[in-house]
Amino acid sequence: MRLPEAAMKVSVIVPAHNEEQGLPATLASLLAQTDQADQIIVVDDGSTDRTGEVARSYGATVLRPPGNLGSKARAQNHALPHCLGDLVLAVDADTVLAPDYIERLKPAFGDPSVAIAAGNVQTRFTRTLWERGRSIEYLFGFHWHRPIQASAASPMVCSGCCSAFRRDLLLEHGGFPERTIVEDMDLTWSAQIAGHRAVYVGDAVAWAADPETLPYLRRQLRRWMAGFFQNVRLHLGRLVVRKPMLALWVLLAVLEILFAPLWWVTPILLTVTWHMPVEQALAWWWGTELLLMAPPLIYAARRRRIPLLRILANIPCVYPARAINTYYAWKGLITELLLVPLGLTKSLTVYEKGRADTLPPGPYTPRHATPQRIQALQALSSPQEPAPRPPAPRERPPS
């Protein structure tokens, strides 16, 4: 029997590796929720700083594996058997939730077909070129692509930094997927293929700390784009049969990647082929860009109450980030869709987050959720088994 959403208990998992600086803001935002989580678990995944100590000071339950687990999904799976809630909210250790995030997300689960729900992600900081560029991408994506996909009941991804999952779904799939380098997209697609719904809740807002340096951005985009094409290789055939609308979004994304280089050189082609003056070609290219980007950004500015001039000033910053994204998208496409199937190289399995990595990243072997793994997880999570002690009442730490 399904519980009404108001009665559902929420367990929060925060995987953290060397996050003593970012973790306080994350935990403070969780403690400030208007609909309080029933359990907050921080997985201190091989940290060499004060991550565990900081988490305990905020009243969180701290789990520390014997060694670094090598991926975010594994850290989350380490905590999953200890989760007591009907819903599991996965939150990155550098993400801050709006005070009403859980309150706004919970009603989505009043529909028994909904297995995953995620909110609107925006950038926490706009200090550097890369953060400012990412802020434009998030404003555009979460106020254009996401609503369209949501209206078609086929979101491409529920962001791993702030998504809530039915615990039953996670048990059904053997936990968070470890077979690809991006567990959020893998689980979003797998759930929809299995007949469940994933939903986007635009009024639930979270702010993520994005790459502030070029090396960090490169590591993140390498992982994201390789993971995207790992999921294309793994799921596309079943998506076409079981979830054709989601397959359409995926194919459109692949086409956008394929044609991105052509768009970048369009001003040169106009100049060489049509003998258009360089200034006119650039003006045509830039005008077309603004025409496509302006309506969603104007809407986002009003919705998020951001001065429009600030958004306009950040638009030029998006192009360096897009150029790097195009490079890693093509690299991921060639590697994961061509070279890996031909046996000429290995799929990306090194999980590099970037900002907090002070230990050298180690490779891990992606695992599939075998029937034995699912049974073991369900046994660990069974109500007949001794349940972990609930966390002590949390008090807001002194400011």
Automatic annotation (TrEMBL):
Q: List, in alphabetical order, the Gene Ontology terms for molecular function in this entry.
A: glycosyltransferase activity
What Gene3D superfamilies would the database entry show?
A: Spore Coat Polysaccharide Biosynthesis Protein SpsA, Chain A
* Region (Disordered) location: 375-399
Domain of life per record: Bacteria
Q: Where would one find coiled-coil regions in this protein?
A: none
Show the stretches that span the lipid bilayer: 246-264, 284-301
Which UniProt keywords are given for this protein, alphabetically ordered? Glycosyltransferase, Membrane, Transferase, Transmembrane, Transmembrane helix
* Similarity section: Belongs to the glycosyltransferase 2 family.
Name this polypeptide is given: Glycosyltransferase family 2 protein
- Biological source species: Actinomadura rugatobispora
